[in-house]
Structure prediction request, 288 residues.
Amino acid sequence: MTGNRGERNFDELAREIVRAALREDIGAGDVTTSAVVDAGAVARGVIVMKERGVAAGLEVARLAFEELDAGALFEARVVDGDEVGPGVVMAEVRGLGAALLGAERTALNFLQRLSGVATLTREYVRELEGTGARIFDTRKTTPCLRALEKHAVRAGGGENHRMGLYDAVLVKENHARLVGGVGRAAALARERSGAWGRIEVEAGTLEEVREALGAGADVVLLDNMEFETMREAVALIGGRAEIEVSGGVTLENARVIAELGVQRISVGALTHSARAVDISMEIFPIEV
Prediction:
């Protein structure tokens, strides 16, 4: 589905995002820590999972502490993608006490958010076990956090759809409306897509499925279809294109949809509705 993504290095993006988050939280300075904690005091922080979930975002957390204390030592006890039970220590960090206090909330916010995305993704992946269908995310991500959230989807066992508008051809309803219909839009995409090769076309009716197939779509996205219409669409496509389903997918119906014989199910909820996982951090002094 992708050509030259033109993506920046993940670490570079993550560091930029972490810096912005720290600026948001600390501003001109942590006035409480400055008043209470000696500048040279060193401390140890322990990050603990408070409920069962799938870990994600440990590297992002590390960057938060290192941004405030280049000498901080961050030791991850689990890796992204691990299932972690309540009470398990996810990581320990040692460094200047002021830095640990300053980075604590930013690090936890990322860990809780990204672990929530990974945990929900894992639930969907488990629902589809044995069906041959795969779970994909969408572009319904938190602005400026897409790279991190899509990383969390991968940690949960899901797959990334396109990263943005720049790395895959997907003809949607609004494209079709602007040029006179799905068939016309799909034909133009096929004619002009050049090096991208594969094109995906969204269809909301059986007629639009026919138009997409007629234009040579490689993937037909069945969008917000009623179940029986979806069943008819799968039969109509008959292996001539890969089938993706999106819209109205839940944990309760994902397996039933997969068993129709579709190859891909995309779920916006993975990133727009995942509940943050409960993770805490305790900080202790180190005597020197």
